[in-house]
Amino acid sequence: MDEKFTAFLITEKKIGKLSIAPLDILLLAATLVFGFLLRGTVFTIYGPKEAGTSSIFGESIDVMKGVSTASDYLMAAAAGYLVSYISGKKLSGYITTAILFLQPATVASSAMWGMADGFYLTCVCLFLLMILQKKTALAGLFLGLGTLFNPYALFLLPILLYGIFKRRSGEKVLLSVAALCYVAGGKLIHLFLMGTKIPPFAYEAILNKGRALPLLSYNYPNAYYMIAEGSFVFEYRKVGMILTVFLAMLILMLMLHFSEKRETGEAYRARFILEMSLFCCILLPFICPGMNERAGLMAMVIAVCLAMCVPAYYDLAILCCILAFLPTAAFFREGSLWPLSYVALAYLAAFLILYRRIVSGGKLKGEGDA
Amino acid sequence: MKELFGKKIRIAGFTMQVFDLCLMVVFTLMALAVRYVLRHVVTEDYTMFFEPWVDTLRQAGGGIKGLAAEFEYVDYTTPYLTVLSFISICPFLNTLLLIKIFSILFDFVAAFAVFALIYEVTEGKSTYAVIGYGMLLLSPTVFTNSAMWAQCDIIFTSFVLWSIYLILKDRPLGAMILYGCAFAIKLQTLFLAPFYVILWMKGKLKLKHFLCLPAMYCVGMIPALLAGESVKELLGIYVLQANGKVDIYALSHKFPNIYQLFGTDTFLIEYADAGIYVTLAALMVEMFVFARAKYELDRKLFFRMAMLMTMTVVFFLPHMHERYAILVDIFAIIYLFLEPDKLYIPVLTITASFGGYALYLSGGKILPIAIYTLIFLYLMLDHGRYCYRAIWKRPEKTYG
Questions:
Q1: In sequence order, what are the beta bridge partners of B10?
Q2: pLDDT for A255-303, tens place per residue?
Q3: Greatest extent of chain A over all pairs of C-alpha atoms, in Å
Q4: Rounded to an integer, what is the distance from CA A206 to the centroid of its chain?
Q5: Residue B204 gets which letter from DSSP?
Q6: How confident is the model at residue A51 (pLDDT cuts 50, 70, 90)?
Q7: Which residues, including other chains, have CB under 8 Å from residue A258's CB and lie 6 or more apart?
Q8: What is the pLDDT of residues A335-365, one digit of tens each?
Q9: CB-based contact B386:B396 (threshold 8 Å)
């Protein structure tokens, strides 16, 4: 009886086109239930700045929290699909969905803060999927959409440019260029939406305006916490932007250089693109000025996806998950328990470890097949 | 389009693609933009030292005449004072901008030196050389030093870099003339002197070439002699600096060295003297090993050794300033192109070095500088380990 029941639980059944085991359904259902319970417990927490803004938005903050929660699930599902596409294992995809939906940083961003970061992160996952499938024009479209929701998606621009350089022979250059233009246009649309006060974008804009001081970084532990986030703000902001563009160019050149050695098969290509995406998401916000607490979310999502495809990356994934939550915690308790300058060192270490692994050319200790 | 970018051209003995040239232009524009943003920053060093010095030179008539001025205190040698003296009578732009522009010019001289060095060590890979050029120009310690702080460390550094380039090209006399020029500008050139001694031991230089140092120093004195200054006073500038009478109030001036681990403000006289002996002892051991052992001085070992010996000096010597590791920062950038998987070397070197800058510029609201000291120490040990393995032919453990 027991054997029959356990066999039933793990035997895949056809539901329409989808083939899924009852235990998988249980996992996804439990993820949903626990995800909502988790969010429910922190739903009534408001950030220190909300006191001022709640009078403007009234009850819509709670509505935004609800919408943000839904966007989280979209993001977790998209990341899960990306992982199952790369690894060829549906189970890895389900686990990714569960991990990301239940991440403290994701929960804090949506249920405590009401930020709809899930939308842009969903776009980022779909963008990576399109890059892997060599559908560059669609990839550009998704990156543009991501930029529309949050400009942080632009940190993946070197990956799109790489995709354009390595596009299929039949694909028209014009389409890729059009997609690229859309990325640039995305920012303008984003600004337009902020101007029209459509939540949650207007909400975020008001929060940003409400910051007491112009700083080089708002609780995001990057290079500016190592050189004092409040000094030479005007000068370092501009210098930081130039350095970010310089580094993005170097990343693109590094990708083109290593791609000759690394693109030996589809699995290694996928891994290489995920590695380089993570590289962009760690390095560029580390140097880019004006980052806020949620700038580490994209690195967290990509690190989890990478670890689910290449288990040897579990250490970086754990590190990125912790680092993504610390700044949010610092925002809600109005001060970080750990000095953020020390946390910035951890980001620096993560970046150096990742670089070492990328140039080592795919030979990692204890690594399974990608 | 691909054909155009791939077309090879030859400029000043360097063969490069049109693509590399375009990249170089982009990096140059970025570097200029960074410096333009920082042009109005005024630091304490400028208001306390450079500005009064230029005023004094101006009052004495400026130009060569100005060099006869009576300073309350000055620790710069004639060549740089001559520059300041001409700046004092320059009819256009203000003093701050002119001082910065002069240093920025040498940022580019140094960047071209890095380009040439990387081109040389990578056997003609021009794209690497251009990336190195960009990395130097956009290295925080380099642009902060010249464009923000109005300091002039990049001037002597440029001469040292070209000197190293000529050594690699087996032109020892030219190399030592340039090293002598660097020495005539700043005493900190001597941080690398132990390495030059090793190069002499390994047959890359001859003893007579070392005469270029005093010779170039004397050449540098000529403008001041023309203005009527006494030889004794001009020769005494480095003695004044070496005696540590100027910076005596702290064992380290925000530089992440050994004194940051146990306090920079106690036993000033005793620890300063002890520090000099410790430096000499550490150098003696290193120089003995490097001079005595039989090994081939390849390019990697060359730069590792140069970094190790310079770092040893600034790590143990008392009264070091924030900016004194600039040579190591640049060597670390060049080294990246010899071992591309060792990105941690330039990143950590520049991070540790910039820690001192940040402490000075931000007023101290950053990581405790002892952490940067530990990073610096780790890098020294890493270089030491590499040199030890290379000299005694022990294989380096590889990753994975």
A1: B15
A2: 888 776 665 667 788 999 999 999 999 999 999 998 988 999 999 999 9
A3: 72
A4: 23
A5: S
A6: very low
A7: A272, A358, A359, A361
A8: 888 888 899 999 999 999 999 998 886 554 4
A9: yes
Q: Give A99-142 pLDDT, tens digit per residue.
A: 999 999 999 988 888 888 899 999 999 999 999 998 888 888 88
Assess B182–A contact: CB distance below 8 Å, yes or no.
no
Q: Would an 8 Å CB–CB cutoff place B101 in contact with chain A? A: no
The Cα A194–Cα A315 span in angstroms is: 38
Q: What is the pTM of this model?
A: 0.90
Other beta carbons less than 10 A from residue B118's beta carbon: 26
Q: What is the pLDDT of residue A366?
A: 45
B34 inside 8 A of chain A by CB: yes
User: Which of A170-184, A199-213, B53-67 is predicted with the least confidence, judged by mean pLDDT?
Assistant: A199-213
A341: contact with B, CB 8 A cutoff:
yes
**A233: which chain B residues are within 8 Å (Cβ-Cβ)?**
none
- Could you tell me the CA-to-CA distances from B125 to A338, B15, B78, B116 in Å, in that order? 44, 9, 39, 10
Amino acid identity, position B306: A
Residues of chain A in contact with residue B33, where contact means CB-CB under 8 angstroms, are 238, 242
Query: Residue B391 pLDDT more than 50?
Result: yes
Round to whole Å and give the CA distance between B15 and B119.
9
Across the interface, whether the CB atoms of A245 and B143 are under 8 A apart is answered no
The tens digit of pLDDT for each residue in A138-159 reads 888 888 888 888 889 989 999 9
Q: Give the distance from residue B362's alpha carbon to the nearest chain A alpha carbon, in angstroms.
A: 6
| The token pair that represents A231 in the structure block | 């000094």
With a pLDDT cut of 90, the percent of chain B lying above it is 70
ipTM of the complex: 0.90
Residues of chain B neighbouring A360 (CB-CB closer than 8 A)? 341, 399-400
State which H helix or E strand residue B373 sits in.
helix B369-391
Judged by CB atoms closer than 8 Å, whether chains meet at B365 and A345 is answered as no
Please answer yes or no on whether A228 and B30 come within 8 Å at the CB atom.
Answer: no
For chain B, which residues make up each domain, given as ranges? 1-187+204-243, 246-393
Cβ distance of B38 and A235 shorter than 8 Å: yes
What angle do the packed helices B299-316 and B153-168 form, to 10 degrees? 150
Between the alpha carbon of residue B216 and those of residues B188, B224, B297, B313, the distances in Å are 15, 14, 28, 23
Q: Label residue A63 exposed, middle or buried (CB < 10 Å: 0-12, 13-18, 19+).
A: middle
Q: In terms of CA atoms, which chain A residue is nearest residue B347? A: A352
A232 touching B, CB under 8 A? yes
Per the CB < 8 A criterion, the answer to whether A330 and A219 are in contact is yes
Q: What is the 3-state secondary structure (H, E, C) of A214-250?
A: CCCECCCCCHHHHCCCCCCHHHHHHHHHHHHHHHHHH
Q: Does B351 touch chain A (CB under 8 A)?
A: yes
What's the gap in Å between the CA of A366 and the closest CA on chain B? 9
Count Cα neighbours of A121 within 13 Å in the Cβ-side half-sphere. Answer: 37
Cross-chain residue pair A228–B362, CB shorter than 8 Å = yes
List of residues 6+ apart from B180 with CB closer than 8 A: B212, B213, B214, B215, B216, B217
CA A263-A267-A269 angle, to 5 degrees, is 30
- The answer to whether B134 faces chain A, any CB pair under 8 Å, is yes
- Spell out which residues of chain A touch residue B361, defining contact as CB-CB under 8 Å: 227-228, 231-232
How close B135 gets to chain A, by Cα (Å)? 9
Structure tokens at B90: 């320059």
**Alpha-carbon separation of residue A9 from A15, A315, A364, B6 (angstroms):** 15, 31, 35, 60
pLDDT of residue A194: 54
d(CA A254, CA A261): 11
Please tell me which of the candidates A243, A250, A363 has its beta carbon nearest to residue B400.
A363
